[in-house]
Amino acid sequence: LERQDFSEFQPFTRDLHPYDLSQIYRELAPEERSHFLIRLHTQQLADMAETMTNREQAGIFENLGPDRSIDVMRHMEDSDLARFLHDLPPGKREELLSYMHLSDSSALRTLLGYPPESAGRLMTDRFISLSADDTAREAVEHIRRSASMSDTIGYLYVVDGNRKLAGVVSYHDLFFAEDDQKIETLMKKRVVFATVAMDQEEAARLIQRYELLALPVIDEESRLCGIITVDDILDIVVSEADEDVAKMGGGGKDIDFDTPPLIAVRRRLPWLILLLFIGLVSGSIVDYFEDTLKQIVALAFFMPMIAGMTGNTGTQSLAVVVRGLNGRKLTASTVWKLLRRELLVGLMIGVSCGLLITVIAYFWQGSLLLGGIIGVSLLATLIIGTLTGTCIPLVLSRFKVDPAVASGPLITTLNDILSLFIYFGIASRFLGML
Amino acid sequence: LERQDFSEFQPFTRDLHPYDLSQIYRELAPEERSHFLIRLHTQQLADMAETMTNREQAGIFENLGPDRSIDVMRHMEDSDLARFLHDLPPGKREELLSYMHLSDSSALRTLLGYPPESAGRLMTDRFISLSADDTAREAVEHIRRSASMSDTIGYLYVVDGNRKLAGVVSYHDLFFAEDDQKIETLMKKRVVFATVAMDQEEAARLIQRYELLALPVIDEESRLCGIITVDDILDIVVSEADEDVAKMGGGGKDIDFDTPPLIAVRRRLPWLILLLFIGLVSGSIVDYFEDTLKQIVALAFFMPMIAGMTGNTGTQSLAVVVRGLNGRKLTASTVWKLLRRELLVGLMIGVSCGLLITVIAYFWQGSLLLGGIIGVSLLATLIIGTLTGTCIPLVLSRFKVDPAVASGPLITTLNDILSLFIYFGIASRFLGML
Q1: ipTM for this model
Q2: Is the domain defined by B129-237 classed in CATH 3.40.50.300?
């Protein structure tokens, strides 16, 4: 594509979308990258950086050197830049902020003052606000003057004298307005909005439900301070989904196809070592029931199946709860309804599978009592499995513990322990009768 | 909210967003619902139905009776209606189509002719197309005339004489244009587009990457036949994420907080019964090695841990692949890079955990050889676990098998079998030395 021939470089890249530029950048060998970066305009660099991960951004800024970096940062959207700065060590962040113009850095400090993952962090100040008293013609002139300021999102927000949000008008509506029509008569007064402190998932849900292109964000005094656009929300929705899948997989968070092996190991290993120790608890249960096991070795044949099945029902319940919890506030009645449902499901599944395994075990091992023990154990463990898969994430989210703790593997491993304990407990009780 | 007092009903509901209407509808007792529906305008009913699931839509149409239903359907967006019709039994679908005006039903038949989950199915024909030769003033007049036709999405598409897609202009750009400026000079010629047969996930990815509000869809002859809007894409992204989590949970697909228990059981049980039988294979492996187990019962202590750990690494790898596969086309080089990475990760994790468990087993059971057997087994099974978690979903997606088959529980259960086989295989080989 581009090797030595730099004369055609600028006409070629000028029309490219920032995402395409970032793809070219990624394909380049490290030593070619600085040649590439030097030849891009500051705004192109800023737009490209916005499409990249924090780690890639850091690489670019290192390549550009401090002066050019500050220049590029000035052209980036505040919300994207705030995300980058947030992940830097505090000293480095302060250094960068101190290099910037006071007006830029104070806007960034305000953004960084909102809680992480809040609507305030996501918003951009590139929006156009109109006054309700303006006529359509005045509004159009105002829009023309603020051209460079505005994102092309299709809505214009109307504020009153105190900068309080009063309504919304679309470009589309302005097209159909008479020149001297007042904005007040054009605008919709029922505006869906977010507050600066609102969780980003909740804001995403509003945009999705009401099929909006942008969501205005207001502060404690109902003043309009920014907007969140639907493209930022799409990124949030995708990364929330990634988090949920990682949760189900357990500790795979932030690992993708491009993560280097050592980093992947460092992120997965702590989890696995924790699970290894928890897994040994299962071992000590078997150890504790060694005598039972020695007398009926056949019990060992059904051990993997019982432990596995309990883990499986647990994971199924977990999947329902993980997605259901997403950005939703749970009322007590929802929780009770869910618990009753899952208990009932566990019971029905337990009875079906319990009966089935009783018959299988009877034909395989020729003992009805052994069959019965295994069937009853499976019934009990499946109910327990369903309930742990439901309750643990609910309890964790109630106490605002990072729900990643309730990962699939953890639930599976805990269910291993519970199921073996129940299984051998029931078996040793009926041992004399075998 | 509204019980007996219907006089204030229409002024109250007129300003409500369709999503809010649907929430009120859901809160109503079944017998109140028809009173509620009767009092809504046809367009309100159509908009509300669009925000609901197919099952809820069917309930509404049943409530409204055939004549009113057809009327409401005429006011619905084609893509939403096509989704509803697609899920009906063919006889019922034909019946509904035959009641409609020929122009409506033939448009729907065209949509239903595109493959399920394709861009063609998602698109709406409510867009405005301009000609490149128009002036800005002509364009504005054209837009005013087609007012009711257009979604307020912010873009206008430009087509040539053969209806081929030629460019895109935003409302925003039209605002800044001189009256007699040609559309040709305003439009951007580099348009990101989808084809009717393109997978909906791929279309979603384009919208996300290029931060678009809408994506034009063209047919085989490059003719513009519809647009996909970002709000439809948000729904797709959310439901794809739900599918991925369900995949990790195994068979929990389409189960949410409101699914009745019996339906939840019917969706989960087939999976569990399949897994039960696969789980019994693990049992028969233990059965096969019964003599080994009888001689060293201590082997049973480590069984749950080894099987569990293998399942855990497998699920971790699966989580990475499931999200990575999402809508992405894999090149051979990506696959090889991923496989090499996961093999390396499996090796490193295996060595770490293997050494750790060797030490633990030595101190617990006092036999270095037993410790070594368990350590080597864990090393081997962790590598195998990582590889199955990576390969199975890759192979399935390669052969276009529904990847829901490669669910977390299935991988866990298969890994149970493999790990027990390896574990007892290694142990029985060294049996003489213990």
Answers
A1: 0.73
A2: no
